């Protein structure tokens, strides 16, 4: 009995020892898995500490450069060009004679009209003397007086035509390429050349109606043109009183100085229209924003964990976005590696 009892006891102790050993091994494996899981779950991401800084909100608009003044030079009368007093692409002054049309026929007509006027004046003088002596009726004198006035009017008409034989520059500017030559026969329908004043230019652009109330006379804007990275200033001087119903935009014009002739009328312009300046704007990189159904979210670090925060955005630059609601100054915003994060995920943040 004693041997059998001892054998059973040994077997029981071995079973108990095996169970204890199994339990210890299982606990060690679970502990190792938990440690490894925590290490694997701690994602390595980059982040920034948000700080308030001045931010100027603006609109980026399309515009065009227009000359201060531009006209197509034309003649008011028909005739043969005798003189061309300008060069293509050259500058001219206000009042300068650009073209002289042959006026020989008009001068002959003027001489003829002057002779008739002298005769009519003499006839009127004689008729007046006869009327005073009651040798002619009042009606006969009135006819002689009317003939004199008609002769004077004819002289004034021919003199006005003679003035039109000289085409003058209505303002100072640059003459474009001419379409005629000396000796050409021109009419009032003939386009001679363009005269353009580029001493200053007009910047024309349209602003969406939601921002129409922000446009004021005297507002300063900036713009760029192709071919240079320089920014040019301009000042709003005119605003269309009505919003265009087709585009829901408001047309605006601004002056820009062009004394160095760097701005060419007709070119495209990128207009930067200022809206407001935020003294402490919270800017985050655009890559930190995650689009969701109801808006946008970002992740911030709280107690070593990634916390999901819904935000409202404002204006943006090429790289950053203004956050108007959702975060505070001093928050650590996660900027990269955020697409795989979940709310509450452990994170190891490297600050940039």
Automatic annotation (TrEMBL):
Belongs to the membrane fusion protein (MFP) (TC 8.A.1) family. Residues 282-349 form the YknX-like C-terminal permuted SH3-like domain. NCBIfam families: RND_mfp. This is Efflux RND transporter periplasmic adaptor subunit. Residues 70-188 form the Multidrug resistance protein MdtA-like barrel-sandwich hybrid domain. GO terms for molecular function: efflux transmembrane transporter activity. Residues 203-272 form the CusB-like beta-barrel domain. Residues 104-161 form the Multidrug resistance protein MdtA-like alpha-helical hairpin domain. InterPro entries: Beta-barrel_RND_2, MdtA-like_BSH, MdtA-like_HH, RND_pump_MFP, YknX-like_C. It comes from Sphingobacterium phlebotomi. Pfam families: Beta-barrel_RND_2, BSH_RND, HH_MFP_RND, YknX_C.
């Amino acid at each position: 009995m004693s041997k059998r009892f001892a054998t059973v006891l040994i077997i029981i102790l071995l079973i108990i020892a095996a169970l204890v050993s199994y339990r210890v091994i299982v606990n060690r494996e679970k502990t190792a898995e938990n440690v490894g899981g925590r290490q694997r779950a701690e994602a390595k991401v980059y982040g920034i500490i948000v700080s308030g800084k001045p931010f100027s909100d603006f609109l980026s608009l399309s515009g065009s450069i227009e000359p201060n003044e531009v006209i197509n030079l034309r003649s008011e009368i028909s005739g043969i060009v005798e003189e061309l007093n300008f060069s293509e692409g050259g500058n001219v002054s206000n009042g300068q004679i650009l073209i002289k049309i042959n006026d020989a026929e008009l001068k002959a007509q003027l001489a003829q009209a002057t002779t008739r006027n002298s005769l009519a004046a003499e006839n009127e003088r004689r008729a007046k003397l006869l009327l005073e002596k009651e040798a002619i009726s009042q009606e006969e004198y009135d006819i002689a007086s009317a003939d004199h006035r008609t002769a004077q009017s004819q002289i004034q008409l021919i003199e006005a035509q003679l003035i039109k034989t000289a085409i003058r520059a209505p303002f100072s500017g640059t003459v474009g390429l001419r379409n005629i030559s000396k000796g050409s026969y021109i009419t009032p329908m003939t386009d001679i050349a363009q005269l353009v004043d580029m001493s200053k230019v007009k910047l024309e652009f349209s602003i969406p109606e939601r921002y129409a109330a922000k446009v004021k006379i005297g507002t300063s804007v900036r713009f760029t043109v192709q071919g240079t990275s320089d920014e040019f200033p301009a000042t709003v001087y005119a605003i269309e009183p009505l919003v265009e119903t087709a585009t829901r935009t408001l047309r605006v014009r601004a002056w820009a100085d062009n004394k160095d002739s760097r701005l060419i009328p007709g070119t495209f312009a990128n207009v930067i229209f200022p809206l407001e300046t935020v003294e402490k704007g919270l800017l985050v990189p655009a890559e930190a924003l995650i689009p969701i159904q109801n808006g946008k979210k970002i992740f911030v670090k709280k107690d070593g964990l990634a916390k999901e925060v819904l935000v409202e955005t404002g204006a943006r630059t090429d790289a950053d976005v203004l956050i108007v609601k959702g975060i505070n100054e001093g928050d650590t915003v996660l900027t990269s590696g955020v697409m795989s994060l979940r709310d509450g995920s452990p994170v190891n943040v490297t600050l940039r």
